[in-house]
């Protein structure tokens, strides 16, 4: 399979990892009236792309992919330890328990899928979170670093827009307009984060963190986060 086709499979909404069941705090913001229009949603997603935790995760993809390759080939004795250290650090950037559970569940689901397709992690490990699992998928499917960053951001935006279509609600055409409008931001961020040490970045998405923490307290919920 060519790398472009492999990336399309990875970003497909049919990927069975349960992403559709998470809103990452959008549900709280919509119920409070803070996100009530396509413009609101677009502004929020652009801010998260530029300043949120997803930026740290995207910067971490390249080193994690390299460590996974070294772990697979036993080329570097400390590769697994470095990978797990960064994986744990990224998980700690998610303040809300629901978000940490989301990252673990989606990561485990993707690793299980890859194992069933013939690409198990060394030692059959299934305990990496979503960004690291995404990197392993990139290794297995031959997706290079920049395309992997683009795909990660595109997939995150698509999942958020899918949640917004159900919550705000937006029409499907409005959702596609948002995805199209955010494409230049996705592309520029994927390029800007090349070679950046994720430990030198920080998230200023305080509003997102608070919304994610408060999601568990909602009286009625459609989503798991």
CATH superfamily: Urease accessory protein UreF
**Helix-and-strand structural type:** mainly alpha
The level of helicity is: 55-70%
**Given this structure, which CATH class is correct?**
Mainly Alpha
Number of domains: 1
> How far apart lie the N and C ends?
34 Å
SSE succession: HHHHHHHHHH
Strand content: under 5%
Number of DSSP-assigned strands = 0
Question: How much is the radius of gyration in Å?
Answer: 17 Å
Mean pLDDT: 94
Describe the structure.
- This protein has 225 residues and is mostly helical.
- The chain has a single domain, classed as Urease accessory protein UreF, CATH 1.10.4190.
- α3 runs parallel beside α9 and α6 packs parallel to α7.
- The radius of gyration is 17 Å and the shape is globular.
- The relative contact order is 0.22.
Features:
66% helix, 225 residues, mainly alpha, Urease accessory protein UreF, 0% strand
């Amino acid at each position: 399979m060519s790398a472009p086709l492999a990336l399309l499979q990875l970003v497909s909404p049919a990927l069975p990892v349960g992403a559709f069941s998470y809103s990452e705090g959008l549900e709280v913001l919509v119920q409070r009236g803070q996100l009530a229009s396509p413009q609101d949603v677009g502004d929020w997603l652009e801010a998260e792309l530029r300043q949120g935790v997803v930026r740290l995760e995207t910067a971490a993809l390249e080193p994690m992919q390299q460590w996974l390759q070294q772990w697979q080939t036993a080329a570097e004795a400390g590769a697994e330890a470095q990978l797990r250290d960064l994986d744990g650090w990224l998980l700690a950037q998610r303040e809300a328990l629901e978000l940490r559970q989301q990252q673990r569940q989606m990561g485990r689901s993707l690793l299980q899928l890859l194992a069933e397709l013939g690409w198990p992690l060394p030692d059959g490990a299934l305990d990496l979170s979503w960004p690291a699992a995404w990197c392993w998928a990139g290794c297995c499917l031959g997706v290079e670093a920049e395309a992997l960053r683009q795909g990660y951001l595109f997939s995150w935006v698509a999942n958020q827009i899918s949640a917004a279509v159900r919550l705000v609600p937006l029409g499907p055409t409005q959702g596609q307009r948002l995805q199209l409008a955010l494409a230049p931001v996705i592309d520029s961020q994927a390029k800007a984060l090349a070679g950046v040490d994720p430990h030198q970045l920080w998230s200023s998405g305080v509003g997102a963190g608070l919304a994610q923490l408060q999601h568990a307290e909602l009286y009625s919920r459609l989503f798991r986060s």
